[in-house]
Amino acid sequence: MKQDSEDKLAHVLEALENPSSFTQEELKSLFSDKECLRYARTILYAKESLARQQIPQPDIDKEWRTFERHHKKTSIIPIIIGLAIASCIALFFIFSLSKEVEGGLRVFEATQTVQIVKEETVNGMTTVYVPRGMQKRLELPDGTCVTLNAESQLTYETSQFGQNERKVILQGEALFDVAKDSLRPFIVQSGKLSTKALGTVFNVKDYSTEEMKITLLSGSLKITSQQKTDSVFIHPGEQAILTNQQELRTVKIPQTEDITSWAEGNFYFDNQTLVEILCELGRWYNVSVIFKSKDCMNTRLHFKAFRNESLASVVELLNYVSKNPVVLEDRTIIVGK
């Protein structure tokens, strides 16, 4: 028994230190074992604690004034857990939008636009826009509550909304808590998908840097692809994904609350690529992201942090859990050697 536990610990240490030496199936098998998972968490918590001890104490008054000016929220200390897992999956969306620059590949670009929430009504259509680094909660005329993520836009008919159907157009990401109405379906048009609900809670994520995902927390949804006219029904704990080939597929999501943790002010990435994580950071902090090498873009991490922490602190902590060096220079995150 003791030897068996020691062998498991040795395998966990090797997987955390050299994930590329394991196949995806081997990693899944290893961490499906409860004892191995417990070992991994203990090691990562210890590593994260050691990282914090080495980070200089911030100027609390200065950080508070800066944070209060930009976010108007109560500051809290971040939590971050990193688990690197090998991956060789090509990121179609990232590569299609990336641009070769001196010294590497720019996958996300900062904008000089003034970052303010905008709400305007033109020709009977109301549009709410939330810029980078912010999120906003609003209530629609029918009582439906919507939380818009950074760099997102919601449009709906002002006077006609709810007369026959309740339809909104979304760009970006939003969490919907739909008011129940069996006679008037609630429809979210986003990109190439249409989502239909009567009364339910779900999250729609549609950014150009990744696949479109719709996650259901409660109720039921019918999701229709405009391009291929196929539909899927999903139930609580399921997620619909529009693939690069414009096909709909569904997957199980054990912890749906992790998907919507952004609405509570958190970053949460479960086995996502480094490039996806850094694009999300770029969107929130409005900074550019450059990779010196494509090789490290597909490295996968399990990463959690609070959004009201400074970018410098998040980058500092990332360097303790990622083998690829991450450097913050002015308004640019540079990754790789």
Automatic annotation (TrEMBL):
GO terms for molecular function: sigma factor antagonist activity. Coiled coil: none annotated. Keywords: Membrane, Transmembrane, Transmembrane helix. Residues 267-335 form the Protein FecR C-terminal domain. InterPro entries: FecR (IPR006860), FecR_C (IPR032508), Ferrdict_sens_TM (IPR012373). Residues 128-221 form the FecR protein domain. The chain crosses the membrane at residues 75-97. This is Sigma factor regulatory protein, FecR/PupR family. It comes from Phocaeicola coprocola DSM 17136.
